[in-house]
Write a structure and sequence with these properties.
Blueprint lengths: L1 H24 L6 H52 L10 E2 L5 E2 L29
Antiparallel strand pairs: 1-2
């Protein structure tokens, strides 16, 4: 008896969407949500148009020089990527006034020192506060 009731309930739930489908087909236009989304997207497209245009102009100007850079520097960058396993061990690159680019390595952590504790030579003076 319980199985019959479960089957009838499942059949009723499966046929319920078909019973309401006729009511939904009367309205053939887009819903209010679809209209609102369309208006939002149109406004966003209009607001973003100047930025997209300037980005396109920049890409057209920078494209040839970027292509040349990758042709010349690509192999060296690939070698460097193979050598460096952990980029967190390096400071961000800095450019010197003469145009040289330095990528400095951070000091290795002291193995005897627990993480989060300042090394002895960098200890705070008495009464000092670590912020």
């Amino acid at each position: 008896m319980r199985y019959v009731f479960s089957l009838l309930l499942a059949a009723g739930l499966l046929t319920a969407p078909a019973a309401f489908a006729d009511e939904e087909t009367e309205d053939t236009g887009p819903s209010k949500m679809e209209q609102g989304l369309q208006l939002f997207m149109d406004g966003l497209r209009q607001e973003m148009a100047p930025t997209v245009d300037s980005l396109r102009d920049w890409a057209e100007r920078a494209g040839p020089s970027m292509r040349s850079f990758m042709e010349e520097m690509g192999p060296a960058l690939a070698e460097m990527m193979d050598e460096v396993r952990d980029w967190t061990r390096y400071y961000p690159p800095e450019m010197l006034p003469n145009g040289d680019i330095l990528i400095r390595r951070r000091p290795d952590p002291v193995p005897d020192q627990p993480e989060g504790e300042a090394p002895a030579d960098e200890a705070l003076p008495e009464g000092g506060t670590d912020i």
